[in-house]
Amino acid sequence: MSLSVLLNINILTDSTFKIRFNFVFKLLKLKNTFVSYLNFMIKIKTGTIEDVNSLRDLCIETFYKKWKSTNTEEDMQCYMNEFFSNEKLKTELQDPEISYLISQSSEKFIAYTKIKRNSFEGDLGNLKPIEIQRMYVLESYIGQRIGESLMKEVIEIAKKEQFEVVWLGVWEKNYEAIKFYKRFGFDFYGSHDFVLGADITTDLLMKKVL
Ligand SMILES: CC(C)(COP(=O)(O)OP(=O)(O)OC[C@H]1O[C@@H](n2cnc3c(N)ncnc32)[C@H](O)[C@@H]1OP(=O)(O)O)[C@@H](O)C(=O)NCCC(=O)NCCS
What we know:
Blueprint: H1 3-41, E1 42-46, H2 52-67, H3 73-83, H4 86-93, E2 98-105, E3 108-117, E4 129-137, H5 146-160, E5 165-171, H6 175-183, E6 187-196, E7 199-209
Parallel strand pairs: 4-5
Antiparallel strand pairs: 1-2, 2-3, 3-4, 5-7, 6-7
Coenzyme A (COA) binds near residues 136, 144, 176 and 177.
């Protein structure tokens, strides 16, 4: 092959690469702008008793979407009836040890986390503990930094209230969630059984010292 042909091919691949690179770069910029805009539109509020119905719907929808493929319908219904009933949620919404932090876009609830103060498990080294009991984002909003803003809020509240360690349990095969928690500096420190109907699985315990 002549030098000029080779040069032409190089110039071509080089410019094609540049065009592709620019396109991907612009797409990423667009995505980041969208994510920033979305986060600007989202407010986090602490759930009150008035939120019980919308919160229950959010808890059920996110839990069902996440776990329906790995559990039987009967086990799912049984668990959701027990943990997401109006009575249970109303009691929790009035418990000073528990807070539901809810991400809201306009009037719509799109994500939540449930924290429990002074709840502990395993070796937390006598540090004052706060537990993240649940964190769920609606499927269509996953991966758009909604969880990140909830986690930042949890850490801010925990520090303000002088807790010394945040901990949580996560299913050992929930790799994406584990990656998410690691990003915030959570490390493994133990495990426990998680029972959903007849199904017993292993949850890994993760903690972050504040
Ligand atoms: C885990 C969860 C709360 C994270 O919130 P999020 O808003 O999706 O996460 P963010 O956008 O703030 O952060 C994205 C990071 O989360 C992680 N992540 C977790 N689940 C993800 C998913 N399904 N898709 C993309 N990223 C996911 C990735 O590490 C990602 O990091 P990267 O962008 O560097 O690749 C959310 O994905 C969720 O509700 N998942 C389903 C329910 C669940 O598993 N809850 C945890 C139970 S212990």
